[in-house]
Structure to design on (1062 residues):
């Protein structure tokens, strides 16, 4: 196939890591896709990173193993990297570069799109407005996910991010009654992780509506740069050409960023924090920003990227920049996990920025905002008190404070720790009010009287009044 | 105009190098490649020019043409700016979306200001009048709230030979000078050089924001500058948007610089619906938006804040108070870093270019209150004399929430007000999550007269008292950590209680509550007064009654609810409340005497 391309060259001058440097080739375009064929007739894909009068820099996605200066031929395709797209992709598994890896043959494309995409015109974006019920109280009630949002899950090594994500995906699929498309982009994940997701999709019957792009841990590193772009290009096709609601799960974006770093350092670019390139923010943003809704069109792209925090460090550049770009974050806590709490969502640093758009009267319930606000305030107070108790003992605490402590305990043990069983939004709210009844009314400064009267479990409300 | 024509010799991301560019100047605008992508010259070596390109450079190749007319990038200024949304290089995004659909395609161009629309022009000078740069020759009602003043551009001087009211497009002359020069509704202006003014003057009026923590504790002047640094999730953008909504500026310019697309959508959806509390008109009628979201080209992001501040100066020159919100200046600094990296410049701190500090400083220095450019001084035309201001409020996104990083530190040296966002406050959903212990305002002395005259001489005293209580609370908190709250003395317990009221019922303010979102200054004053008089009152009761009884007074709950008083005609309610808080005390004193 490579022979079809008109221009073939044997001009490699230098090979360094994933980069190949060529001499003086005419008419090469920036970001053009190239095909490399080595002496054993093995094909590799690459992309032009820099064009100059004397030198051309090409990154090789499958790595430069086996390439040599003399025999390797380079074909310039004259076009940027494109992905063939069609509805036949549903139920299929592709590798990180978009080639089928399930042995079912190539797809017949309806269209081909450049995988870098184009930015959505901010004017054309529609404001996200519908919440997505994930069945997890700590998310639904406290950090509501909204259709069109990008909400990453920050996790640490050994924490059950995959379970939580799979649980959300299952629930969302169940609710959509088969309308939702799930696109899974795996970057540098282990076969064990892949098998877990595959089984989850299979068991929930979601596989028919899922498309998987997989770059496993032993696949070429540089290919990871393509994988999320493949997944998101496909997502945009299904959302904005076919009018589907699409949920994109990307795991693990840390591996993506590390691949980026590898290329940057091979190019001898000036590194930013922890060796990541200075353009890491822009690069991550071009992926994460590919979520949302468009005016006058059905369909939406919602992103749930999973990012591992190295050494549980939330200030790590990849985590930090992700947090700045995305619309909130769900943070998993090692401490809660150790106590056997599942899902171990740490409510305090978790946040959904778009929550307000999806909740309230006519959406969830009129008291949602105040209830959430109150639970947060009390829990934050309780965590602080608990720290004090550790120093001064519970004797130093007043009666009201004791009750806040009790609330905090129950909040973690009963509200957050719900297990695999999904809860409806209604149930989560009932739980919330139930917990508030633990605390004297005078401590509940963030809920208005009318809501207390209406929603506080009856007996408890009277008891507090008395 | 001479045309310089060269060829691409190298492409690396957003930076393109061209050869054969002899005669080009730094910051000249160039057209790159077959598509004619816009770019700006940022480095010259021999006949080689390095160009930052405002669009994606995919597909460019060595040898493609590069041309320039040898003039810098100019923005168009004139009626039609208000209510628009532009990208960083003033392309009207609404027009673009009609042309190319929901996704922005490369090489799309559109006129920044509408060419066909006719504006009603009313002259304010007569034939025979002598005018110079900055002088107002007439007005156009641009939106329901903005009267656009048509000014003589720089370098134009003369006597009006012809001027007539009527309906004009921006390309038709509205006046002619005796030497034949024509004046239009529109002018063009470079963005990297501050627009001229007569002189900077001291700012002495606060930008009233309707947000208690800003107006009472850490005000910024009209013409001042403020920065809001904070880690992610601490509410920078919500705070910026809240300020953009409720500030009493005449014109608001909101620059979404490298931030989220959905946030711009939020502004675009909400601003046309929200009412300006002063005029009752939609907020959009005084607002210009610049959206260069994080996934849009990085060079245009670098440009966006200059485009924004040039708009701001233009309206300032008409005599308006303008507030410019830049969210986020860190993304702009990162754009600088990215371009600098591509130029292979030797980096300064954390990879940022060594000129970061001077760029930040010269940006913030474009804020200020000025006597606007006019011929008032030269020709003695006093009716042309006017003042205007630009207030700059910049969000900063320090990596890892660490304020010691270069962008925060360099901004701190310049800005007069520092609003430090605090992750811990945000975690407990205390918003705005401004840390009252670390934040500061350097404008209090400048504002003293205003507060004394417009509100009350008590205002600043009470402010000092609030801060003192909060400061003392912080010290006590350390003691509490060691010995527990129960072992504190009664006065200290009371202080903690009142501090909590100040935090929860005064400083905390919901941006989403119908009434709470905007709190009139007078109401803020009453609330502060209520809290402090109640505190004073309770202090008087200490020792006379058991502490538990003081703690159980209904006054505490009344204080918690007073924020929800309607924003109109609240004065009688507060007067009543102030009495009740005291009357309640009277009852206690009676109780005391009965007990005895």
């Amino acid at each position: 196939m490579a022979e079809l391309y008109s221009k073939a060259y044997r001009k490699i001058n230098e090979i360094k890591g994933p980069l190949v440097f060529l001499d003086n080739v005419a008419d090469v375009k920036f970001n053009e896709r190239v095909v490399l064929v080595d002496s054993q007739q093995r094909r590799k894909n690459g992309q032009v990173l820099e064009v100059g009068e004397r030198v051309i820099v090409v990154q090789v996605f499958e790595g430069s193993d086996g390439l040599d200066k003399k025999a390797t031929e380079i074909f310039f395709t004259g076009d940027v990297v494109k992905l063939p797209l069609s509805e036949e992709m549903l139920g299929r598994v592709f590798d990180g570069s978009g080639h089928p890896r399930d042995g079912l043959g190539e797809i017949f494309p309806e269209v081909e799109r450049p995988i870098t995409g184009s930015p959505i015109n901010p004017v054309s974006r529609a404001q996200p407005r519908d919440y997505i019920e994930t069945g997890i109280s700590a998310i639904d009630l406290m950090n509501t996910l909204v259709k069109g949002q990008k909400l990453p899950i920050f996790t640490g090594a050994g924490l059950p991010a995959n379970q939580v994500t799979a649980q959300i995906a299952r629930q969302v699929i169940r609710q959509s009654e088969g309308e939702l498309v799930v696109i899974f982009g795996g970057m540098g994940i282990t076969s064990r992780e892949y098998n877990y997701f595959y089984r989850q999709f299979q068991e929930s019957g979601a596989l028919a509506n899922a498309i998987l792009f997989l770059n496993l841990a032993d696949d070429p590193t540089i290919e990871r740069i393509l994988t999320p772009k493949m997944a998101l290009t496909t997502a945009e096709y299904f959302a904005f050409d076919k009018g589907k609601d699409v949920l994109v799960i990307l795991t693990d974006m840390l591996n993506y960023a590390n691949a980026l770093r590898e290329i940057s350092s091979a190019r001898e670019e000036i590194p930013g924090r922890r060796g990541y390139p200075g353009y890491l923010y822009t690069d991550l943003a071009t992926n994460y920003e590919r979520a949302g809704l468009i005016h006058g069109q059905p369909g939406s792209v919602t992103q749930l990227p999973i990012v591992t925090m190295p050494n549980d460090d939330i200030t790590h550049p990849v985590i930090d920049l992700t947090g700045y770009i995305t619309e909130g974050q769900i943070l998993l806590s090692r401490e809660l996990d150790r106590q056997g709490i599942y899902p171990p969502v740490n409510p305090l640093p978790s946040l959904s920025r778009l929550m307000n758009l999806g909740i309230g009267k006519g959406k969830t319930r009129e008291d949602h905002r105040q209830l959430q606000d109150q639970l947060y305030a009390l829990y934050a107070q309780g965590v602080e008190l608990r720290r004090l108790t550790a120093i001064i003992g519970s004797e130093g605490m007043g009666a009201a404070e004791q009750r806040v402590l009790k609330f905090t305990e129950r909040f973690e043990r009963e509200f957050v720790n719900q297990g695999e069983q999904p809860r409806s939004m209604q149930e989560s709210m009932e739980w919330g009010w139930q917990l508030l009844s633990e605390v004297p009314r005078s401590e509940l400064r963030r809920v208005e009287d009318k809501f207390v009267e209406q929603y506080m479990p009856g007996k408890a409300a009277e008891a507090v009044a008395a | 105009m001479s045309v310089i024509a060269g060829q691409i010799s190298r492409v690396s991301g957003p930076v393109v190098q061209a050869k054969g560019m002899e005669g080009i100047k730094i910051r000249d605008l160039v057209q790159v490649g077959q598509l004619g992508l816009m770019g700006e010259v940022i480095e010259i070596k021999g006949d080689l020019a390095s160009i930052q390109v405002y669009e994606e450079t995919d597909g460019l190749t060595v040898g493609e043409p590069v041309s320039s007319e040898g003039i810098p990038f100019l923005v168009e200024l004139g009626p039609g700016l208000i209510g628009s949304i532009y990208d960083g290089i003033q392309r009207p995004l609404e027009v673009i979306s009609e042309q190319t659909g929901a996704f922005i395609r490369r090489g799309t161009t559109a006129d920044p200001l509408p060419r066909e629309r006719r504006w009603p022009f009313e002259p304010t000078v007569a034939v025979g009048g002598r005018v110079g740069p900055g002088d107002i020759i007439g007005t156009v009602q641009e939106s329901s709230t903005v009267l656009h003043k048509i000014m003589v551009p720089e370098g134009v001087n003369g006597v009006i030979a012809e001027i007539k009211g009527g309906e004009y497009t921006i390309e038709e002359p509205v006046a002619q000078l005796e030497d034949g020069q024509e004046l239009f509704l529109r002018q063009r202006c470079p963005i990297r050089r501050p627009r001229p003014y007569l002189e900077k003057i001291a700012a002495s009026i606060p930008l009233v924001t309707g947000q208690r923590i800003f107006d009472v504790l850490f005000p910024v002047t009209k013409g001042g500058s403020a920065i809001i640094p904070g880690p992610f999730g601490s509410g920078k953008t919500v705070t910026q948007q809240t300020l953009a909504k409720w500030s009493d500026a005449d014109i608001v310019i909101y620059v979404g610089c490298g931030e989220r697309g959905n946030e711009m959508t939020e502004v675009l959806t909400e601003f046309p619906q929200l009412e300006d509390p002063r005029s009752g008109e939609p907020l959009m009628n005084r607002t210009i938006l610049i959206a260069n979201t994080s996934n849009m080209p990085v060079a245009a992001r670098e440009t966006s804040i200059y485009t924004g501040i040039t708009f701001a100066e233009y309206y300032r020159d008409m005599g308006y108070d303008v507030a410019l919100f830049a969210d986020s200046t860190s993304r702009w600094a990162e754009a600088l870093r990215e371009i600098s990296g591509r130029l292979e410049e030797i980096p300064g701190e954390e990879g940022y270019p060594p000129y970061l500090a001077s760029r930040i400083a010269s940006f913030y220095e474009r804020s200020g209150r000025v006597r606007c450019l006019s011929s008032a001084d030269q020709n003695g035309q006093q009716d042309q004399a006017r003042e205007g201001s630009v207030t700059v409020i910049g969000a900063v996104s320090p990596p890892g929430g660490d304020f010691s990083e270069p962008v925060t530190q360099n901004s701190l040296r310049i800005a007069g007000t520092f609003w430090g966002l605090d992750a811990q406050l945000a975690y407990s959903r205390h918003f705005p999550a401004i840390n009252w212990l670390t934040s500061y305002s350097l404008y209090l002395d400048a504002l003293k007269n205003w507060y004394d005259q417009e509100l009350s001489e008590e205002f600043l005293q009470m402010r000092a008292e609030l801060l003192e209580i909060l400061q003392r609370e912080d010290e006590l908190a350390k003691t509490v950590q060691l010995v527990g709250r129960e072992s504190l003395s009664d006065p200290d317990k009371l202080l903690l209680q009142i501090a909590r009221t100040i935090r929860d019922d005064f400083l905390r303010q919901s941006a989403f509550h119908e009434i709470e979102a905007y709190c009139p200054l007078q109401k803020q004053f009453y609330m502060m007064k209520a809290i402090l008089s109640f505190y004073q009152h309770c202090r008087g009761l200490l020792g006379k009654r058991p502490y538990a009884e003081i703690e159980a007074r209904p006054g505490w709950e009344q204080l918690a609810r007073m924020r929800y008083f309607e924003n109109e005609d609240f004065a009688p309610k507060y007067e009543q409340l102030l009495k009740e808080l005291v009357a309640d005390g009277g009852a206690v004193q009676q109780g005391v005497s009965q007990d005895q």
About this structure: Chain B touches chain A through 82 residues (CB under 8 Å). Residues 585-596 of chain B have pLDDT under 50 and may be disordered.
